[in-house]
Amino acid sequence: MNVFPADAATRTAPSVQRRVRLLLINPRFPESFWSFRWALNKILPGKRALNPPLGLATLAALCPPNWDVTVVDENIESIPLEPQADIVGVCGMAVQLTRQSELLNYYRKRGHYVVAGGSYASLCPERLEALADSVVSGEAEYIWPAFCRDFMAGAPQRLYQESGTVDLADSPTPRFDLLQLDKYLSVSLQFSRGCPYRCEFCDIIVMFGRQPRTKSPAQIGRELDLLRASGVKDVFFVDDNFIGHLPKAKELLHYLVDYQRRQGYSFQFGTEASLNLAGDDGLMHLLRSANFGWVFIGIESPDEESLRETGKSQNTRQDILASVRRIYSHGIDVLGGFIVGFDNDTLETFSRQRQFITLAGIQVAMVGLLTALPRTPLFERLAREQRLIPEAPHGDNTGTGSNIIPKRMSYGDMVGAYKKLCRDLVSDSSISARIHNKSRDLRQPVYRGDYPLAKRLSIIVRLMALGVLPGGPKRWFRFCGTLGANAPRTWPLIINDWISGLAMRDYVERRLGSDRRRQRPTAQATMEFIEGRFAACLSRGSLLVSSVPGVAFDRLEVTLRGYVEPQFFSRTGRRLERLLRQSTVKLTLHIEELAEGQRPHINRLLRRLARYGERVSIRTSGNLRVALAVDSSVFHLVLED
Ligand code: SF4
Fold first, then answer.
1. Which of 227, 325, 470, 482 allows an S-S link to 441, with CB 3.0 to 4.6 Å?
2. E-assigned strands of 162-222?
């Protein structure tokens, strides 16, 4: 166990005799391909996010029995601004680092003892050292109980770092009872950690090693029993490679087949696996028998040279397209991860990726720019070659940038081609072509869309009203074509594909689709509208509207400093909603002061802007922040005073 050097500013916790109140927070994710925001908001009411924070539920189970633990997932609920907690633990992946840092700062300033953890703390504990009282880095099973003991004794250390190997037999059953399971599309379980392969960009093998470790079937059975008792139907085995330890995976699958038979096939499973799955018919048969409806595979590239370059040799041993089709033939859907920007890649690679994804019929195709995560072999190689862009974002590889300098194309050309590829993949013709291509091989899908009849009907009605019909006769024609050409037993999967395709289209349109040349007049018109209609408020100083200097019209800031006419909220609300809909402008609503009786108006305004909450920051402070109770799972609630 390493310990950060002693720091005079380090706060120590008092020796604790009473019950310890622990608040664990999963920070809000910035929106990405993975969010499926349109599907969650519009088509699947009641669901707020894809998967719950399994790591926090496991951490909660590792606490002493007399600790009071609360888990808050900011992706489905607002954070508490004044929690009754002795310790606030905030986890995070690289993509959550900004929000994780904000939360650590906020709670630390309020006198809570703050602990940072999660996968980014495991990769780069030094990046969180200054922000937290303690950092927990690596698998938690042994080091978290050590932190709890030290905290109770009043002597927690700055860093708890797992440097050995955790036996997953020692991993407890997660505290699912602390999660709002019904708010998620599927619930996560973990069977294994580690992967035997050596892809150059992969941080999993840096964190978990190349010797896969597994839980026993009995452990998984106990977890499934709890989920079944909670009414969970969809379970996602979050292992980075479910078949990394093949004999153990097969042992579990035999157990799951038996479990499902005994329990009336109450679960629908999905997981992630390497492509060599396609070479083992027995394994695919077992997956099907255990009711695995889909598998996510890191295909990365159809280009053999790029695969070799990145060390993904397991994908070069067989024809990738034939492999995907073989998996389909067992009734299992394939979701795919793809990367562009390898050293071998040129601008032609983008169209080859599009052709491959279309031919393979992969609807959920997560295409990302190659990004180097710290401590990976890729990061180290590019650092040696001086091809890293310092401080460029590296958390979300499906964002519109990367931290690497490509080799055989310019950075600008790469990003431009990437955006085009994303747009091409979400066109109606591309969505329907992929459904047709997949349906040729996937004739007996495991996926049945096991919802009650009323819910099934409501999903279809919403999809038609909010997704298919707004696309006009051409989309309607294509939608009907995909259903008409296939047997009714495949319709649930086809409908699912349309929902996924249109959700990705919505994301791409909002993220990449806006013509930025239109942004200036639109934002300017909104400013002029407010200045013209509410000149009196502006002149008496209760209202201020501005764009952020230097980033002209990319960001609009509206400040409220006192009484503003009620019609301001309705009229300006409509204009702001249109601005957000038609552009990629970010809005900051700065509420410095709110006059008597204006709270209902501001609440109505917030409801109007909620659909674009991802780009709306609410800045306020002190008591007003607490009184307004802005939902931080919808808007970016700025936490600095
Ligand atoms: S197969 Fe997946 S988990 Fe395994 S090393 Fe490659 S990218 Fe990482």
1. 325
2. 187-189, 192-193, 213-214
